Amino acid sequence: MTALMVQNAHVTTSYEGVTRDGHRVSLPPHLHGVLQRQAQVTMNYLDVGQLDRVIDELVFGKVSTHMANWLGSMPETDAFGFVAKVGLEVDQLRRALYATRYHQRQFLYRWNLLRPKFALLPARLPAPGTAVVLDDMPLRFEFQAFVTAADAAALDVLWRVVCVVVGKSPKQHQDFRIKVEKTGDRFPALHGVAQQYRDWNKDLRTMRNVVAHRGALEDFQGFGVRGGDLLQPSVGPVSAAHLGIRLWQQLHQVVDETVQAATTDAAAQGPKHPA
């Protein structure tokens, strides 16, 4: 993957990825979920302030608008009880998104720092069949931290916000998310979104669990040179930079659509007392 491809990454396909040498390939099943959703946010990692602006636009723009529409449908006395509670959880969501952004940015910075150095290696190798692979620890650890932070934001902190909106205790967020995925009897909008992103959620949690319980994402490989070709850092057959940008794009959509669904279901059920 070239620097230009990372800079202008925009998702238009479903089950395709970019390989270490820049070619598009069909993805293995275990990566379908995290790459399948079409994304609308184009990221430029050279624009230092863009990620900050995207987070602020999401939290203080779209999420706040969903909240305002939901609170506006309540009697004033009921709305006051929710403002402080939901405000605290939304602020934690903002912090979780900034943590995700930080690790993504650090990973892409390291990626961009190492790539020019490896681009010079093919001409220096003593034989065409020689392979050189660098397992750069900062690069690996920042990618793993990014995946872990994205998982926490999408599957924990976001659903704490959802629980407050629908009148549940935030402590129940894991059980509530699993229940909503299975049935849409009381929360049809949330059920629809949970079903839509079920594979994405599952694969993101799987990667996080591998990091948490095995200490490393085993499919991750660093920069390398093989047969005179530069190999990009990858997760399985897919460029890690490509995957990192697409995960961020999809996280943006998951937050927006999940909060909107939660406020829709809450408004349909009528006012509730905050948990």
Report on this structure:
The chain has helices at residues 3-7, 32-35, 50-72, 76-119, 121-124, 137-165, 173-182, 188-196, 198-214, 240-269, and strands at residues 16-18, 24-26, 131-133, 220-221, 224-226, 229-231, 234-235, 238-239. By secondary structure, the protein is mainly α. β5 (224-226) and β6 (229-231) form a beta hairpin. Mean pLDDT is 75; it is low at 1-43.
In terms of topology, how is this protein built?
Elements: H1 3-7, E1 16-18, E2 24-26, H2 32-35, H3 50-72, H4 76-119, H5 121-124, E3 131-133, H6 137-165, H7 173-182, H8 188-196, H9 198-214, E4 220-221, E5 224-226, E6 229-231, E7 234-235, E8 238-239, H10 240-269
Antiparallel strand pairs: 1-2, 3-5, 4-7, 5-6, 7-8
Helix pairs in contact: 3-4, 3-10, 4-6, 4-10, 6-7, 6-9, 6-10, 7-8, 8-10
